[in-house]
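Hi there,

I know you've been waiting on this one. I reran it after we fixed the sequence typo, so this is the corrected version. Both the input and the resulting structure follow.
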Amino acid sequence: MPSAESLIQSLRAQPLLIVLRPGDPLQAEPALKRLQALGLRHVEIAWQQRPGWAEQMAELIQRFPALELGAASVCKPQGVVEAAAAGCRYAVSPVLDPALQQEAARRDLVLVPGVMSPSEVHHARQLGCAIVKLFPAVSVGPGHWRRLRGPLGAALPFCIAAGGLTSADVRPWLEAGVDAVALGSGLGALEEEPWLELLAALGTAPDAGDLVGCCERAPADLSSNPAHLKGFGAR
């Protein structure tokens, strides 16, 4: 399994994650083709407690070796077990649960916990979490993470801001001091000009030919097209 440090290095190169919520993991394939063609690397597929999730996730990982695929919304030990069994490169949780962290450590899986308060950040650091998710980020504003640095002292964990953010929030939040941003419900239409400008700023804008190809193969709006991606992007 990849280490936390390798994930941090990958996120420093492209500080953006996309969260998808398909009914079953394999239903995410059209969206993943589109995201990959756009040059995006980090995608979370929501874990669900249903038969076949791990097997389908493992198949997606085989089909998209260039993507850093992880499991989102892991709140139970079973989610950790299945994410590790599927070969996920990481898992993300909305909560900070020592039992989940211990289970992930036993399975050599990087588990990113959700934090918000100074106490949660401090506890995560005590548990050895190198990466945390500030969640829900929209509830605290972009200056929240920077304000914690002085009172908590020492180095804070690598921070992914998530929850209620849109593509327009990515650069302001990065400039405010978080290390990466995750987008779910605010994903929107990836071919629109603001998104292409953002991808260019992050060094991931596609060639024109690649963009045309990906637009032909997948729906225009990954967060709201019910025919193809019902439930995607819900945070």
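Quick highlight: DSSP finds eleven helices and nine strands in the chain.

Best,
R. S.
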